[in-house]
């Protein structure tokens, strides 16, 4: 993410400069890994689709937060910046990162408007994780070790 955009996010109150915090970044990374392992054990069905979707989403958001902290920033007030920083990662399946904003909107609708996530949407975020999750984690681990 270019410096100008980051400065605008700071002015908008969506991001705050902090010291690089490897410990917090690793803690968030480990929480995401743990959450993913737990949610993988839940069968996706009509009654669980929203729960499964939200948990996958939360783990992905934690990865975005981990990346910010590893760069010396704290995301504030919006999940949008947490997803935006992940869209900057260079991975094999990079085109799939474009789904992150859609996932954020689905999650917001589920949390704040009572939207019932469909089985297909829950499967979609699970498939996203299965194809991109390991690569995202690897890139964040590199950022943590470099800073």
Fold and architecture overview:
The structure is a single chain. With 147 residues, the chain is mainly alpha-helical. The chain has a single domain (3-146), classed as Up-down Bundle (Four Helix Bundle (Hemerythrin (Met), subunit A)), CATH 1.20.120. It is built from six helices and two strands. The protein has helices spanning 3-11, 22-39, 49-71, 79-87, 100-113, 119-146; strands spanning 15-17, 73-75. A two-stranded antiparallel ribbon has the order 1-2. Helix 3 packs across helix 5. The longest helix has 28 residues, at 119-146. The two termini are 16 Å apart.
Q: Give a count of the beta strands, DSSP E runs of length 2 or more.
A: 2
Number of domains: 1
Low-confidence stretches: none
Structural class of the helices, strands and pairings? mainly alpha
Strand content: under 5%
> What letter string, H or E per element, gives the SSE order?
HEHHEHHH
Averaging pLDDT over every residue, what do you get?
94
Q: In which order are the strands of the major sheet placed?
A: 1-2
Strand count, sense and barrel status of the largest sheet are: 2 strands, antiparallel
CATH topology: Four Helix Bundle (Hemerythrin (Met), subunit A)
Distance between the termini: 16 Å
| CATH class (first level) name | Mainly Alpha
Give the C-alpha Rg: 15 Å
Count of helices?
A: 6
Query: Globular, elongated, flat, extended or rod-shaped: what is the shape?
Result: globular
Helix content: 55-70%
The CATH architecture would be Up-down Bundle
The CATH superfamily title: Nucleotidyltransferases  domain 2
């Amino acid at each position: 993410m270019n410096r100008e955009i980051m400065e605008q996010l700071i002015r908008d109150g969506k991001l705050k400069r902090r010291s690089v915090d490897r410990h917090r970044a690793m803690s968030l990374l480990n929480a995401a890994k743990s959450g993913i392992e737990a949610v993988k054990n839940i069968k996706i069905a009509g009654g669980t689709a929203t729960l499964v979707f939200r948990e996958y989403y939360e783990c992905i958001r934690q990865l975005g937060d981990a990346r910010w902290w590893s760069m010396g920033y704290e995301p504030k007030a919006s999940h949008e910046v947490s997803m935006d920083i992940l869209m900057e990662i260079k991975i094999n399946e990079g085109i799939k990162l474009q789904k992150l904003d859609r996932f954020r909107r689905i999650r917001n609708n589920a949390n704040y408007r009572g939207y019932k996530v469909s089985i297909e949407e829950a499967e979609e975020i699970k498939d996203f994780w299965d194809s991109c999750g390991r690569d995202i984690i690897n890139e964040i681990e590199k950022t943590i070790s470099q800073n």
